[in-house]
Amino acid sequence: MYGCQQNLIHTTPNTRAVIEYLCSESNKVYNCALYYARQMLFKTGTFVKRAAICSEMSGSYNRHFKAMYVSSAQQTCNSVASAMSSYKELLKLWKSGKLTEKPRPPKYRKQGFFTVSYPVRWLKLTPEGIRIPLGQQVKAWFGLGEIYLHKPSNLEWKDIKEIRILPRNRCFYAEFIYVVKTEKIPVNPINFLGLFVAQRIFLAVQS
């Protein structure tokens, strides 16, 4: 099981400018990737998968894709693949008569920001915080090779699997996806049987 924790990002104006740029580029990557996925569907009837979308975006030298750190750009493409997969499943339901209205393909996003996601294997915990690597273009434009996010004190680094920068209501949040530890409680069959019998007796008395 996985949990999700959101923390409001408090940072310097320079770092915020970088975050805004990354989320803006992620939004553009989403629309470019969606354009490719929609064209493949309309022209060939093919629902392209994540690997094909990432390959097309990388191979076509899309400037928005190149502006992001490659793993985060791929995560944005994965969001498009998930949207197309959901649309495919809805079409199946419609064709089988389980939906009354024919579903529409995923829509393009309006100008603005979109989530930037980083699998934790590409990140590093340092004394300054969690190191978030940036693409070469960001480094060239902003003079920064990385930014740092604060790690919540209530989470263990080894349990965190993914970190997302989430734009919302003119603010940015760090979203931490982490493993939720569950304990298996042994059940004594005798106690369970005794509880079941007691419940049956209680119901019989009530009736």
Write the layout of secondary structure elements.
Blueprint: E1 2-8, H1 13-44, H2 50-59, H3 63-67, H4 70-95, E2 116-119, E3 124-126, E4 129-133, H5 136-142, E5 146-149, E6 160-168, E7 171-179, H6 189-206
Helix pairs in contact: 1-2, 1-4, 2-4
Can you give keywords for this protein?
4-stranded antiparallel sheet, globular, alpha+beta, 207 residues, disordered C terminus, 3-stranded antiparallel sheet
Folded structure, characterized:
This protein has 207 residues and is an alpha+beta fold. It has one domain. It is built from 6 helices and 7 strands. Strands 1-7-6-2 form a 4-stranded antiparallel β-sheet. It has a 3-stranded antiparallel β-sheet with strand order 3-4-5, with no helix packed on it. β6 and β7 form a beta hairpin. α1 packs across α2, α1 crosses α4 and α2 crosses α4. The C terminus is likely disordered. This is Transposase. It comes from Planktothrix serta PCC 8927.
Summarize this structure briefly.
This protein is α+β, with helices and mostly antiparallel strands and 207 residues long.
Total beta-strand segments: 7
The total domain count is 1
Strand order in the sheet with the most strands: 1-7-6-2
Mean pLDDT: 89
Order of helices and strands: EHHHHEEEHEEEH
Low-confidence stretches: 198-207
Shape: globular
The proportion of residues in beta strands is 15-25%
Please, what is the oligomeric state?
single chain
Q: Give the termini distance in whole angstroms.
A: 42 Å
Largest sheet features: 4 strands, antiparallel
Q: How much helicity do the residues have?
A: 40-55%
The assigned structural class equals: alpha+beta
Helix count? 6
Over all CA atoms, what is the radius of gyration?
Answer: 23 Å
